[in-house]
Amino acid sequence: MNSISRFAAAVCAAAIALAATSYVAAQSYPAKPVRMIAPFPPGGGVDASARIIAQALSESLGQQIVIDNRPGASARIGTELAAKAAPDGYTLLLGSVGPNAIIPSAYRNLPYDGVKDFAPVSVVATSAYVLVVHPSLPAKSTRELIALARAQPGKLDFASTGILGGPHLCGELFKSLAKLNIVHIAYKGGSPQMTALLSGEVSLAFASLPTAMPYVQVERLRALGVTSAKRLATVPNLPAIAEVLPGYEVLQWYGVLAPAGTPREIIAKLHNEISRAVKTAKVREQFQRLGSDAASNTPEEFAVHIKAEIAKYGKLIKAAGIPVE
Q: What is the rounded CA–CA span in Å between residue 50 and residue 269?
């Protein structure tokens, strides 16, 4: 055997050994507790979603999935920590549209790459926002609201929970597709946003279903539509905004990601367990209480979705002229 043949044989043997090692590691995974980073404080959608899926995985994998809340810098601190963790399957991230799609689409000098630094596992849940207006506003449908805004350019305003948050981008996409001049007013969180809308300080807002619907039910707010592409089973009488504005869709999503380089066998094992978990009545009901729909997709589908979301929001942010750091 010549030197080239010996080298090729050595490379082949090394590849087989590495594959065998990865397979054995995946078969025994997890052999110890797994950390799941939630880059937001306790409470709220990301933390609650992390706890739901962590409990389900703990039961199916036979090892505890420990939630590690690492808030700060609009979730950038915890997301960076996950991106730079060892790719061994023992650190996971409960990602969401903000830090994993919107922020990467808006900022150039991030300490992590929203695509290259992560190995997507699966989406676990999605949720829509609802367009609500103050009852004093003479608009009883999305179509009527658009007509009113066009007749009074610059007179209507919408409240958000902060710049680049989901409710803000809901409003910007609404303005863009309907070609409206509506003023954005940013508040510091959901509670101030709702207070402003309930008092009539602002005309309208996009809010989470659990936040807004109790006020709709007692007629302190009027709901006009949901931000999903189609109507929701939980509120079937509410039209999708897309019925009036084709192409309109803004969803919050939550999903599990691992650091890039995590063995494919481990990613596949986690995906299979998540896929099974989100189909159970227990997990679906837990997410429904949060105003979310349990869901799953393949790692490849999740990767494509993240790239598409980054492109979508990057285009919207640029077109709207939203200032970023």
A: 18
